[in-house]
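Bug #77: duplicate submission created two jobs. Keeping one. Sequence:
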Amino acid sequence: MAVDLFDTRTMLAMLEQMKPARSFLLDTFFSRTEESTSKYVDIDIIKGKRRLAPFVNPKHQGKMVERIGYTTRSYEPPYIKPKVITTADEALRRSAGETMYGSAKTAMDKAEELLAKDLVDLDNMITRREEWMASQLLQTGKVAIVGDGVNDEIDFGMDANHIITLAGADLWSAATATPLEDLRTWRRLIQKDSGLTPNVCVMGSSAIDAFLAHASVTGQLDTRRIDLGQIDPATYPNGSIYYGRIKDVAMDLWVYDEWYLDDSSGTETAMTDPKKVILGSTVAKTARHYGAIQDVEFPGDVSVSRFPKSWIEKDPSRRILMVQSAPLVSLHQVDAFAAAKVLT
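Kept job's structure:
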């Protein structure tokens, strides 16, 4: 029996083999994924307290203590459904790089190539949107969901003192600044509020330049990344650069260079603010949740992160390919992170 190229099972298999767009923040801080068949996702926001067990006389009754630890919030994952149109003319046209004469490619061959390319593009768009959501969460603790028929905000309740803005003599561009002391202060803040120790520091391109140029930072990076006094960064395929370990605060220092096309301005925009520093713990409880696919052709008892589908419209003749997803990038231990703008 012949396999339909545009069968959902075939497209799902193809999606599973594709390499996503750059996703350093997702891979570093949101590695856990959870897929569900429900429209809403309940998330436990964990904010504990360091209580001491009370003293009592051994002949008295035990002291009753309050049960605390987390609050539960219900969120509806935002919905994403980009689609692309393929016409018969595109399958008959010469594809990029194809020889002009004597090509062995049939119209079906070109249709397969177009399907694969379009699936990659749509999947990358969704992954890039998830990475954008992760970036917004790490920098502000919330995400604005704005689009056709939707205008909402998902707020995980990051405390205001975890969103820092330096000014005046404290700016890292000033000779009076104390970058290492700032990192120590923010590290202690995270430890105090969450009970976790941040082990990763992600700096924007401008922030890292100011940090490394500051006189007080000289000699503080791990010597394994130092060669005759010069920092020897290591580049990784996900768009990040590892600069070494900041011994003073026991954190790995990364720089992340990635951009996206802004919806409103139409300009290339940095995924993370070049003037900001993000501190976080890779062991904090976070997740990429995926809600239900709201499509009558989707089997309701199955949970997936992506649902591709294809259909034909007869007049005008064209095939439409669409990939649906309901992602929610979430911070369960929101106090395990902090962001600071260190330059104007």
